Amino acid sequence: MTDNRPPLAVFDLDGTLADSAHRQHLLERRPRDWDAFFAAAPADPPLPEGVALALRSAEDSEVVYLTGRPERCRADTVAWLAAQGLPEGRIWMRANHDRRPARQTKLEVLKRLARNREVRMLVDDDLLVCDAAEQAGFTVVRARWAASSPAMKDAQGAQGRT
């Protein structure tokens, strides 16, 4: 680490800060309707446990967000974070046509961040992302406070786009 700034606390959005339960049914049909899934995100209620952890983390860390949401969702995502009173922070989103698994894309971003900053923790609900981050040596808080449907778990494993 070569930076004097505070460490980073990296938060996922869907299933960690945002309760996506009301839109998980959109992933049950084949093909999965990812466009509708992400379009419904502005209606997500906050997950109190995740929001509280982000607010506590902001006391001694810089909070940043790392999501599988595509870039086209940025304006809605920024508005949602502000409406929940979450700390301002950089938002890392996937390119609109990037279909790689989240365990790959998120790990790439974490490694890039760790080149110049201490990454204090990653908070995520995706088991595969958490496993990959732990295997790479990152401290992980597994967000187990949201209900995840079988369709969501399958989609995360098969396509990993959250």
TrEMBL record:
Gene3D superfamilies: HAD superfamily/HAD-like. Coiled coil: none annotated. It holds the Pfam family HAD_PNKP. It comes from the Bacteria. InterPro entries: HAD-like_sf, HAD_PNKP, HAD_sf. Residues 8-142 form the Polynucleotide kinase PNKP phosphatase domain. This is Polynucleotide kinase PNKP phosphatase domain-containing protein. The lineage of its organism: Bacteria, Bacillati, Actinomycetota, Actinomycetes, Kitasatosporales.
